[in-house]
């Protein structure tokens, strides 16, 4: 009896295929509980199978759903769980049947699951960016540098948890535009020949090369960024799961670096406590370029103030800077914190989590914005085993200013939001007072819509719960002005 009412929809494992079927099912008025979603293996023809009892072939109709849902659905479509199609349809159905604000109810079981899937994919995307290692394929017959360049091909093997190869490929094209490369995975393979990006079916690991001429580069880089103060073996394993180690040439360095870590930590602490480091400021040699990748690359080696010495790495801004998707809004924070310093990405620690929560509340997708900091290195002092944030001085803020200025020159945002006093000081000068000027559009050299608001860390540090809540509400209402201004 039950099967008589059920409709089976068989989807190719991609968003476009699900979207097409979901539209048709919505148009036919099929509630989620009457649909069984099945998935084709990749490469098979797209096909919808409908129950024979069904008299009306589905037709596509336009339904209005929040853009945030479409973005979320495109991401969640990459998840490996076979349940994702049913979940997405359930949420779509609810959004179009009386619950248009469903995505704002973060405690709803469906929304919660959707966001958990999205987070897992973001994590996987990040892991792939961090752990893909190219090996150069040597070819015979390269008798000139040109031929050698022409035939050189770099190949990487990676095992993603989700279907993220297509989603992530653009990142590798941007990062390694002048190389020719392939990223091989069991699901899909991406290939860049210097001009075109193409995809083929997955392969098995034995089809990936082991011959290697680029390892020395990675080894030098890894030894350089290794921060002995951060050593926690269990955490290293959870971040850089053992599964990835086997593909990483630098894994061989870890025992040696671990053995050396206590001595290096002691040295770093002593140097910091005794303020041994002389204050030196070498003005930045900013490249004459408006290519964000060129600027990002140059910032990696910045030594314009002493903060680089105790930081793991430069944490540069993140977000779309090109073409139609170029960020319309730029958020500028103070400086990376402990977790940002470790991961190399802005606002990924506790302050970032609060920032994300506020953005989710106002329905602003962070990936559409550009997020950066006024100071690009983490300033800290040791307290026991912990690294405690220290406020950058005016000199350090000034030394770092050319980076954030160039980021703004490149992006030319419609809206600029300074998160906290340091960003305001860097970009707007000392006359700005957070208590007086917060939450209103100000004219600046960057844009006529510049705003200063709380820094998320300041909200976390508020002396009592009451003030925390009150300031958070103000923070969200400031951010809501951003959404309104974006229309
Ligand atoms: N605080 C900031 O200002 N920036 C970050 O990236 C993290 C915390």
What's the quick description here?
The protein has 487 residues and is α/β, with parallel strands linked by helices. It has helices at residues 2-5, 15-27, 67-76, 84-96, 109-131, 145-151, 165-175, 215-225, 233-239, 242-245, 254-273, 292-300, 338-343, 350-362, 394-411, 421-428, 434-437, 456-460, 465-486; strands spanning 7-11, 35-39, 135-137, 153-157, 181-184, 188-192, 197-201, 329-333, 370-373, 380-383, 386-389, 415-419, 449-453.
Which secondary structure elements does this structure contain, and how are they paired or packed?
Blueprint: H1 2-5, E1 7-11, H2 15-27, E2 35-39, H3 67-76, H4 84-96, H5 109-131, E3 135-137, H6 145-151, E4 153-157, H7 165-175, E5 181-184, E6 188-192, E7 197-201, H8 215-225, H9 233-239, H10 242-245, H11 254-273, H12 292-300, E8 329-333, H13 338-343, H14 350-362, E9 370-373, E10 380-383, E11 386-389, H15 394-411, E12 415-419, H16 421-428, H17 434-437, E13 449-453, H18 456-460, H19 465-486
Parallel strand pairs: 1-2, 4-5, 8-9, 8-12, 12-13
Antiparallel strand pairs: 3-4, 5-6, 6-7, 10-11
This protein binds uracil (URA).
Uracil is lined by residues 333-337, 340, 346-347, 349, 351-352, 373, 457.
């Amino acid at each position: 009896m039950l099967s008589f009412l059920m409709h089976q929809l068989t989807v190719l494992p991609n968003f476009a295929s699900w979207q097409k079927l979901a539209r048709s099912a919505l148009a036919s008025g099929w509630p989620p509980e009457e649909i069984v979603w099945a998935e084709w293996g990749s490469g098979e023809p797209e096909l919808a199978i409908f129950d024979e009892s069904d008299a009306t072939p589905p037709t596509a109709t336009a339904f209005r759903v929040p853009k945030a849902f479409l973005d979320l659905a495109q991401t969640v479509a990459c998840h490996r769980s076979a349940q994702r199609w049913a979940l997405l349809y359930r949420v779509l159905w609810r959004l179009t049947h009386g619950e248009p604000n469903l995505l704002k109810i973060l405690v709803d079981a469906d929304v919660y699951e959707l966001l958990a899937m999205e987070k897992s994919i973001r994590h996987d995307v990040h892991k792939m960016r961090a752990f893909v290692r190219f090996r150069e394929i040597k070819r015979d017959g390269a008798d000139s540098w040109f031929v050698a360049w022409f035939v050189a091909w770099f190949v990487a093997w990676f095992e993603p948890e989700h279907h993220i190869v297509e989603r992530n490929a653009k990142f590798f094209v941007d990062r390694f535009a002048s190389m020719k490369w392939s990223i091989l995975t069991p699901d899909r393979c991406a290939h860049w020949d210097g001009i075109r990006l193409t995809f083929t079916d997955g392969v098995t690991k034995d089809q990936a090369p082991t011959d290697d001429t680029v390892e020395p580069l990675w080894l030098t880089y890894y030894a350089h960024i290794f921060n002995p103060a951060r050593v926690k073996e269990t955490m290293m394993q959870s971040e850089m799961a053992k599964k990835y180690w086997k593909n990483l040439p630098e894994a061989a360095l870890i025992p040696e670096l671990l053995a050396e870590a206590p001595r290096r930590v002691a040295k770093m602490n002593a140097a910091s406590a005794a303020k041994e480091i002389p204050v030196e400021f070498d003005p930045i040699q900013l490249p004459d370029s408006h290519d964000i990748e060129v600027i990002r690359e140059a910032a990696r080696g910045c030594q314009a103030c002493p903060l680089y010495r105790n930081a793991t790495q430069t944490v540069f801004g993140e977000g779309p800077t090109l073409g139609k998707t170029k960020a319309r809004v730029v958020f500028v924070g103070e400086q990376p914190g402990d977790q940002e310093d470790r991961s190399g990405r802005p606002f990924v620690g506790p302050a970032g989590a609060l920032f994300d929560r506020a953005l989710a509340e106002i329905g602003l997708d962070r990936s559409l914005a550009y997020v950066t900091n006024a100071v690009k290195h983490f300033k800290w002092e040791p307290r026991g085993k912990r690294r405690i944030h220290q406020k950058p001085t005016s000199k350090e803020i000034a030394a770092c200013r050319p980076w954030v200025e160039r980021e703004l020159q490149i992006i030319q945002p419609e809206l600029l939001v300074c998160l906290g006093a340091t960003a305001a000081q860097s970009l707007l000068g000392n006359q700005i007072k957070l208590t007086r000027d917060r939450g209103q559009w100000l004219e600046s050299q960057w844009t006529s819509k510049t705003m200063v608001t709380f820094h998320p860390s300041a909200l976390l540090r508020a002396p009592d719960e009451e003030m925390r809540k009150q300031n958070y509400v103000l923070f969200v209402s400031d951010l809501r002005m951003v959404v309104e201004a974006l229309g």
